[in-house]
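Escalated from tier 1: glutamine holo job.
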Amino acid sequence: MDSLIYQSATKLGQLISSRQVTSEEVAQAHFDRIEAKEHEIHAFLHVDTTRGLDTARRVDAALDSGEKLGPLAGVPVALKDVFTYTGAPTTCGSKMLENWIPPYDATITRCLIDADMVILGKTNMDEFAMGSSTENSAFGPTCNPWDTTKVPGGSGGGSAACLASFEAPLALGSDTGGSIRQPAAVTGTVGVKPTYGTCSRYGLVAMASSLDQPGPCGRTVEDTAALHEVIAGYDPLDSTSINHELGSLVEAARMLDVAGMKIGVVKELSGAGYSPQVLARFQESMDVLSNAGADVIEVSCKHFPTALGAYYLIMPSEVSSNLARFDAMRYGLRVGDDGNQSAEQVMRSSRAAGFGREVKRRIILGTYALSSGYYDAYYGSAQKVRTLVMEDFTKAFESVDVLMSPTTPTTAFAIGERVDDPIAMYMADLCTIPSNLAGNAAMSLPCGLSQEDGMPIGIQIMAPALCDDRLYRVGGALEALLQERWGGPALAQLIAKEPS
Ligand code: GLN
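Tier 2 regenerated the structure:
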């Protein structure tokens, strides 16, 4: 049943509901694949075999007795280790939460359970979702399945890598500055940051609350749409949840028609500083869309280049506040408590031991940016830039339906290459951050391979808030047009040709 792992999630759902295969067979095939691949990929921090197989058998029994279940019933999915899931550890890639078993499920987790999906386990990530390479995980890095000497992006490198290595057909991520889209781009997979407020943050361990957004990851645009439909919806447990019906995203992905759509190319995100191969693949995609009848025009969003700087003030400010809860008192790591230490001493030694370097760097930067006397100059100015970035989007969307850019300036870099150079690491987020600051929806999908290093390249689509369907309409059409051009399956399927 090896070939099951190469099927799309949509197809697996159909095979299961029509009883051509059992959910248990599908789950077992993925657990076998995980066992075979993890020694070289390390996409998972926790594999939930017993519970996963139990769920699969329950789905099989329900279907056998004639129950009607949803389209993804019995289909496996991997959960980034930033979402709580009762009965499994939620570590956020940090020593601080090592062995912490949450007492409640995130709303996103509940959505998967309610859709009768089989949760395979928890995926690796940069500590508390801070990073662009998954090298900041306290439990060791994840490797890019296309080339295991390269990073899989971050922070959700585990979720992207498990898709590209066929260990899971679907995965969940969280995107604060690009943690879904940037890993998708460098692993040849699809990732979507939904409109802020449309997928619940309840039970998503907070990094920067005004930016964090859960989202779906898949190998095809249609699969990603199907998962997006499962997780979107109003949640009274999330104070920023929006009560809005997004419409059928799967239908949008199946339209395969961009004729007459107006597509804006962001001038500031597709020029100097980008690898020539990234720009070449980007230009090819724009030509393909234009030949299919889309109206492609250049649009200026002049504050986008300043978004990165604003993000690296706003995000650490929120981080310093959110991570204050890890105080060694209620939960998490506690060290240095020999009975003679004050509470402050225990907090200090626990936070020193529990947090890694990047997390500490951001707590320090954020605390400084918020401190009296500096607040207006740093945090205040950054919020003004955020407003300017939002205004750029608003103005651009008056004349175009979607905006497009490369997702990342380069292909995946080598493991170790940027660990001592935070600024070089932060540059990976150049194109993804504007949509987090503004809250609108954005997708990354594969648009080809670099002819220099053979690594995948991603292209980004950005849509106005609450118009997530447009991502799927353009993404689905572009994916089909590019596949026609390559004469082959979706990009991630290319590595399925491996002999092992
Ligand atoms: N690379 C970004 C950062 O380190 C990604 C964060 C995220 O989206 N979780 O802040």
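The first strand starts at residue 44 and ends at 47.
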